[in-house]
Structure formats: structure tokens, C-alpha cells
């Protein structure tokens, strides 16, 4: 789904912190779910530098009955995530927030400075007649980071529990 853009992100000089992954295994709607959360973004919550949230949902081609990817599919998804990240994070336009694997899908979530740059890149991929995997994306304006909270809060709890 595409939402129109207004008020581009300011070119704030916020440094993206070094990633700090928190891995959570849980269950959602009776299916196993694996979340990888970049808890380092918790240090810049509310930053005007990343007022948009981008969610990319990739459909798996090969999965187990539980909806998790096969070993071969995991490798394909890792490569796709690497390519998405390489393009989206170029020039510090995006910061990786989370990856969620559940029910035959892998969702990649980013915080974004300029949504038009991300949209231009993703549009070229969606026009491909034979993509590696089908995917859809959505970009939402979220200057208060409310959407990000649903991922960062469980990560905070996991980090606090470990301490």
C-alpha cells in the first residue's frame, strides 16, 4: 500500500547507533514467530531524523508446516534482506528496526528519513516481472515513533530481564 508523502524529513544530523540485536521467540495466533529487533534505535526514539516507518512483507516460497522458512528459503531471505538494506540504508536514509518471521512471511521494518527515496527504489523492484520473491510495502508517517514502539517495547523488556 502506498501513502502520499507530505513534509519531507528534516536533514537532522542524528547518528545511527551501532546495531544491537535482541532476538525474541514467541507465538502469534498459534504460529511460531521470530523477531530480531535492533534495540539500539531505542536511543534515538522520537528523533526527527527518521519520521517515517517502512514495512516490507516478503512472501516465502518454501516453508515448514509451522510457517517458518526452510533452510534454503532462509538463505534466499537473508540475501534479499541484505540487498534491501544496502539500498535503503545508503546515505543514511534508513535505519533497520526489525525483522519478523511468521506464517510464511518475513517482514523487514525500517525507520526512514526521506520516503521518496525509499519509494523510488521499491517501485523499481515491484515493476520486475520475475522477482526473487513477491513482496509488498507500506510507508507511514510516524514522527512520534508510535509504530516503532510495538517492536522496541518487547525488546526493552527482554534486555531488562537479562540484566
Summarize the structure.
With 163 residues, the chain is α+β, with helices and mostly antiparallel strands.
3D structure, described in words:
The protein has 163 residues and is of the alpha+beta class. The chain has helices at residues 71-88, 115-126, 146-162, and strands spanning 21-28, 31-38, 52-59, 94-102, 105-112, 135-141. It has a 6-stranded antiparallel β-sheet with strand order 1-2-4-5-3-6, sandwiched between helices. β1 and β2 form a beta hairpin. The termini are far apart.
Write the layout of secondary structure elements.
Blueprint: E1 21-28, E2 31-38, E3 52-59, H1 71-88, E4 94-102, E5 105-112, H2 115-126, E6 135-141, H3 146-162
- Let me know the largest β-sheet: 6 strands, antiparallel
Helical residue percent? 25-40%
Question: What is the ordering of alpha helices and beta strands?
Answer: EEEHEEHEH
Spatially, the strands of the biggest sheet line up as: 1-2-4-5-3-6
How far from one another are the termini?
Answer: 40 Å
Mean of all residue-level pLDDT scores: 88
Note the total helix count.
3
> Which structural class should the secondary elements be placed in?
alpha+beta
Low-confidence stretches are: 1-11
How much β-strand is present in the residues?
A: 25-35%
Radius of gyration: 16 Å
Principal-axes shape call: globular
Count all strands and give the number. Answer: 6
Amino acid at each position: 500500500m502506498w501513502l502520499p508523502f507530505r513534509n519531507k524529513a528534516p536533514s537532522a544530523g542524528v547518528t545511527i547507533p551501532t546495531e544491537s540485536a535482541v532476538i525474541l521467540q514467541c507465538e502469534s495466533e498459534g504460529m511460531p514467530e521470530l523477531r530480531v529487533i535492533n534495540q539500539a534505535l531505542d536511543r534515538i526514539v522520537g528523533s526527527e531524523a527518521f519520521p517515517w516507518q517502512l514495512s516490507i512483507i516478503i512472501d516465502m516460497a518454501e516453508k515448514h508446516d509451522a510457517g517458518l522458512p526452510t533452510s534454503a528459503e532462509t538463505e534466499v531471505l537473508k540475501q534479499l534482506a541484505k540487498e534491501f538494506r544496502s539500498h535503503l540504508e545508503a546515505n543514511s536514509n534508513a535505519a533497520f528496526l526489525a525483522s519478523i518471521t511468521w506464517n510464511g512471511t518475513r517482514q523487514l521494518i525500517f525507520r526512514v528519513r526521506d520516503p521518496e527515496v525509499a519509494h523510488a527504489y521499491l517501485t523499481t523492484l515491484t515493476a520486475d516481472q520475475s522477482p526473487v520473491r513477491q513482496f509488498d510495502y507500506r510507508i507511514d508517517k510516524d514522527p512520534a515513533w508510535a509504530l516503532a514502539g510495538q517492536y522496541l517495547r518487547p525488546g526493552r523488556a527482554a534486555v531488562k530481564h537479562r540484566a
